[in-house]
Amino acid sequence: MDKERFYKDLNINLDLALEAHDVVRGTRGGEIPGVSLSEESFDNCTVKVVKVLDSKGSGIIGKPIGDYITIESESLRINNKALHADLSKVLSEQLKTIYPFKTEDDSVLIVGLGNWNATPDALGPQVVEKTMATRHLHGRVPEELTNGLRPVSVIAPGVLGITGIETAEIIKGIVEKTSPKALIVIDALAAGSVSRIGSTIQISNTGINPGSGVGNKRASINQDFMGVPVIAIGVPTVVNSSIIAKDIIDNFVDELKERPPLKELSKELNPPMLRIILDKVLNPYTNSLMVTPKEVDDLIRNTSQVIALALTDSLHPAMPEEVANYLQ
């Protein structure tokens, strides 16, 4: 059963544009009209840029028109400050390529999406906790102390189940009152592969649909709704169990095909049969059981540190590096 059909049948949304691109390209073969892919390698990471160029490409891979930058690095899983600092530099430079700011005085609101009570969903709040707010300093302290410091405000608005208010509505109210030039939203994502957890960072200039990857889609946070450009930063922290089960079955079938006596048996595992197997194994949570590694605490801590440092470096270019590191 091809992956594109599998995801559609189970109504699984792929948060990572790179994964959506690879699934469609793998199923249909060849390049995707209206979508481009480029790649660049660094010392300890690879940067891949998916550009959705028009409505045709958007319709094919299911992502809004815009740029999606994916940073892949196994070093995110390693507790190594030197490697994380290098990765933050790469992330910082990539962020600068999609920032909409015209001057260093343009203000920004950083929003940490997610539930701080659930570790796999706490990436956003932890990034906000590590990010320096400077908006309140402007006009209240001597000007020489704020030179090179962009006006930055931060908030972790929680989730609907905690506040009783749609997160997008909370952010919209803050935007209307504080008038930032842009939003930067950070959220945990759902991956289409176990290997993506704690090894991938995606940034985009198209906004975000909170909860879409785990079947709990909320109101979109994008420029159309907010009235200002929205930069999204996301890291996969969970995988749908159906995807893991399918990967196991696919690998099992591939092994059967390599053994002539069992080759005929592999033909019996057609798409309908696969769905029956998944329903039996995962019932009653066929499409709602999400899996995360037991090391998720470390992954969230390391990744939030990398993102917070990259935000400080990219938003406050005049700040000395040792000061930025100290603030983390």
Automatic annotation (TrEMBL):
InterPro entries: Pept_HybD-like_dom_sf, Peptidase_A25. The keyword Protein biosynthesis does not apply. The keyword Acetylation does not apply. It holds the Pfam family Peptidase_A25. GO terms for biological process: proteolysis; spore germination. Autoproteolytically processed. The inactive tetrameric zymogen termed p46 autoprocesses to a smaller form termed p41, which is active only during spore germination. GO terms for molecular function: metalloendopeptidase activity. It catalyses: Endopeptidase action with P4 Glu or Asp, P1 preferably Glu > Asp, P1' hydrophobic and P2' Ala. Coiled coil: none annotated. It is an enzyme of class 3 (hydrolase). Keywords: Hydrolase, Protease, Zymogen. Gene3D superfamilies: HybD-like (3.40.50.1450). Its EC number is 3.4.24.78. Residues 1-15 form a propeptide. Belongs to the peptidase A25 family. Initiates the rapid degradation of small, acid-soluble proteins during spore germination. Homotetramer. This is Germination protease. It comes from Desulfonispora thiosulfatigenes DSM 11270. The gene is gpr.
